[in-house]
Design goal:
With about 220 residues, the chain is of the alpha/beta class. It has a seven-stranded mixed beta sheet. Helix 4 links the parallel strand 1 and strand 2. It is globular. The protein starts with a helix and ends with a strand.
Length: about 220
Amino acid sequence: MTQIFDKMPDPYEQWFHTPLGAVIKQLELELIMKLVQPKAGERILDAGCGSGIFTEPLVLAGAKITGVDISQPMLDWAEKRMPDQNFQVADMCDLPFEDSSFDKAVSITALEFIEDAQLAIDEMWRVTRSGGLMIVATLNGKSPWAARRREKAAADKDSVFNHAWFRTPDDLAALMDLPGEIHTAIHFAKDCSPEDAFRIEQQALEQGSDSGAFLIGCWRKP
């Protein structure tokens, strides 16, 4: 699994520089920032931080970041982006931190590559302080994007999606024993124009759709 992600930094980054990729990044980031609400001086864990593309906005908001990932090449990108933050190789199912170490724990599109999602969630929850937030985003199993990714994986043995578990909003909610916020974004197709993407997204938001490709949950620790 580590070797798969070691090859990913450049293609992963380049995708977000395409016209539609830029729209997706904007919409996902808006939802992330709305839920995380990073504040200056907050200690935030980014579990499965990858190249740091969604970590950097938290740093720009003044948060103090600890980023972990299983891929050193991914972390190399993150460290170049944010040389004053703390990044280290670690498994989010076995976090090397004491209980209640962080004000907030965040994980963006890493959970889909972990078979034991419950263990990863429990670890993130463990290191979040009382009164803090845990925000977890993953790929939505209810989305047409997930169906296409499964088809791609079936046709390509080297596809990263051969190692993915696509979970639904109900699956994500069931990982916690207390209520939280569950949202989805990216309700348009991959061949959609950027202009149509914003229109479709607004319609989905008004209709309360839960089939967006980007699935995110937020919980506050008592």
